[in-house]
Cytochrome P450, E-class, group I
Amino acid sequence: MGGAVRRTRAGRFGAASATETAKAEDDEVASAEVGVSVGASAMGGAEDEASGTACPYTAAKEALGLAPPPPTRRDENGNPAMVDNVSFLKSLIKASQHPVGMPIAMLDWAAEKGECVGIKNAIGPFCVSILDPEIVEYVCFTNAKNYRLRMLPDAFRYVIQNKGITGSDGQYNRDHRLMCQKPFINSFSLAEFSSTVEERIAHMCNTWQQAHAMGGGKPYEINIDYDSQQVTLDVIGKVAFAYDFKRCEAHEAKTLRGEADEDGNVSKLLAAYNGSSEIMGELFITPGPILKLQNFLGLGRVRELKEQYAILESVGTKLMSERRAIVKERLAAGDEEDYCLLDVLVKAKDADGQPLSDADLWGDINDIMAAGHRTTASNFTVNLWHVARYEHIQEQIEKEVAALGGRPPTFQDVQEGKLPYTQRVVKESLRKYAPINLFPRLAEGPDTLPSGHKVEEGDFILLSTYAMGRNPRVWEDPNKFDPDRFTDEALYAQAEKQASAVARGDPAKLEQARERMRRRMNAGRDFTYTPFGAGPRSCIGGVFALLAATTMLASTVQKFKLSKASHSKGAVGEELNIMYDTTICFPEGVWINLEPRERPLGA
């Protein structure tokens, strides 16, 4: 693995060349794969290939036939690995009792049978559970055209009517992904978004500072999960449709002056997002015909779910109407810039050359709001909890932030590689606590996976960001929080390790696999790390999410010393108490202490 690695201007972990990465790949797949460019090889530009040979120890073990069993194994008769009915039922029972759910079963199957296993389902389609990065790559990139369909709960499709980039398929989905991706890779839009993030986190920090002073100088204890949601709702509101929900102001009024939230509509909106996610989690496996019957009879929670979505749509429709008028005025004045996602969509045309309908606009905006709000908030929460817990991690971030000279951190600092360790903390949080635990796919036609499993149209491909992030073969001591997993050296070592697993002792295959792993990593398509999903249905806001989370973390550490709360509520030892509905959530909150610094670091 020797040889120096030359950095680009943005650095190995920057975001400056997300656009170049997309352009370098196949247009149809890459255009929808911007979120993947924030994977293990980050969002940065390409580097020169590192020179060197295979690890001598690994090579020797392979030559002697002593290498560990390959990640994807066959049974004693040479057939693709299958989970027997007894193991399947045991794992399902365990998963049903675990707050993380199905990914726990997937990890069990991987340990018992290998990282790609088939599951015969007596009451449903054949299923293949995949953790092996090679086969994840096959499904999400090599043969992605056969696996574009996303497995969604019927409850979701029932209420959104197949609109939005999450609930739609086919050409409609591809067209809308291209539209919605635009502001997240546009330099002007990203600069606008950076200003929003900087201003909103600064406002929240000011509230924390004043609350600390009111407490007589004692460490200020907060539920960072709650506060994070207020910040990120403001941010996503501005990003999605340039609307300021003023959640930071409302939080300030409540915290410092005990004032009730005067904007009932915004409170209803936030409650509707959280409530609909919770209900969706409960109804995840309920078939469509049963949903319709329950709705007709007024049974179950289907009617409540539709009511929550009606609230969201009513608020959204009003905001869209206001924004249409603003965009029209700006265009008349010669201003064609996109200040938010809605600006892009208002100016867009459908396949017939007509403006998008309100239903089309709302489907896309709702997706960005729902996906971007809670996922960004949860990552910010996890980041601060770990920094508060580990002094050595906080010290490393402090050094980077101090080098900025006291000015607020920006997206540009992240893009230019000035906060590499801080960004590694964010990535490690995403690995260990993936915002979304599953990103399953459906086969559109017959195929044979590299594992030998044969799939037919409608068969179910089970993929999990959570399980991949906790895969002990890929990640040594996966439950340990270690940001240095994402140094260049560690990533190249991981690529070497994966290449050895793929080659299975064949020297010719080893060299081919090594080169491919490095190219894949440099292109931002490392399928060992998929916090934003992978392939044509990956998160289009992954670039923005990583930039925002890194900037917010650096801004907080610049102004506060973080420490553990005096109690253990919300955590069990080194693990947070989590559960998943549609995204990760924290049933007991996440608690930390904040103590303002005398002056910002570096000032």
Q: What stands out?
A: DSSP finds 24 helices and 15 strands in the chain. The radius of gyration is 24 Å. Residues 358-389 form the longest helix (32 residues). Residues 18-153+438-537 form one domain.
